Amino acid sequence: MRTARVAYAGAVHTATPHAGGLLLTDGRVVAEDSVVWLPPFDVGTVIVLGLNYADHVKELAKELTVTSKDEPLAFFKGPGAVVGHLAQTRRPADATYMHYECELAVVIGKSARNVHAADAMAHVAGYTVANDYAVRDYLENWYRPNLRVKNRDTCTVLGPWLVDADEVADPHALALSTRVNGEVTQRGSTANMVNDIPTLIEYLSSFMTLNPGDVILTGTPDGVVNVNEGDVVVCEIEGIGSLSNTIVGDSVFGR
Q1: How far apart are CA 19 and CA 33, in angstroms?
Q2: How far from 238 is each of 88, 104, 175, CA to CA, in Å?
Q3: What mean pLDDT, rounded, does the chain reach?
Q4: DSSP 3-state of 187
Q5: Where is the Fumarylacetoacetase-like C-terminal domain (predicted)?
Q6: In percent, how much of the chain has pLDDT > 90?
Q7: Residue 63 gets which letter from DSSP?
Q8: Domain range annotation of the chain
């Protein structure tokens, strides 16, 4: 099953796909462009993995000091960073290099604490698409992302669907791609993760409790490029969905 959360007629609804658009839980069928798309689940802690694709590490090799012996590079995001499908993401006027990151997002469905990798997938509720923007100008260095780079308001897009885990036969064999204004700029596969999902859940749950609604953004392949005001960015993951949003400038946010 795949579900979305949308705002329509002054209320928040759960919605499912329908031939006529979206089927709301109250039985109404509405057009997809008549709603405001929200993140498809009640988002808890957002845990982000950096440098978790071998080809992306290679892409940044000249700037990195990372080795295969390092622990996963993980950091958190606040709730203000998260927006839904078709939302706008702000590009600061002083940014010279801001890029997307198409990522498989793993949504926790059952609390996990000290979980072994062999048991980890039982704690996954499902998956959605994430686009996690970064402003590279603000990096203190190329290995440890700081707050201004990755925890920006509107910089993390989630959706449009939450796809149940039992509908995804192998989350480690999914094609990813990104299009900017219709041009494919990024291709990859979840098969190229450095640390797979069970490994990440085992690692994270060894020192923190993962709760329902927590989400793990599992990293991005190589192929990131600069985006500018007016660009429409579409991140797509095989079997999960196609997530679109638009880059806007400071003036839209009254800056």
Answers
A1: 14
A2: 23, 10, 5
A3: 92
A4: strand
A5: 46-248
A6: 83
A7: G
A8: 1-38, 41-253
DSSP code per residue over 75-93: EEE-GGGEEETT-EEE--T
Average pLDDT on 237-245 reads 98
Domain at 41-253, CATH from 3.30.420.40, 3.30.70.270, 3.40.50.980, 3.90.850.10: 3.90.850.10
Signed CA dihedral, 191, 68, 213, 20: sign only? negative
Q: Which two tokens stand for residue 131?
A: 């686009």
Q: Which residue has the tokens 């090799």?
A: 61
Question: Looking at the whole model, is its pTM more than 0.90?
Answer: yes
Position 147 scores a pLDDT of 80
Q: Residue 187, exposed/middle/buried by CB under 10 A (0-12, 13-18, 19+)?
A: middle
Peptide bond into 171 cis (omega under 30): no
pLDDT reported for residue 56: 47
Report the alpha-carbon distance of residue 202 to residue 164 in Å, rounded: 21
Superfamily classification of domain 1-38: FAH (2.30.30.370)
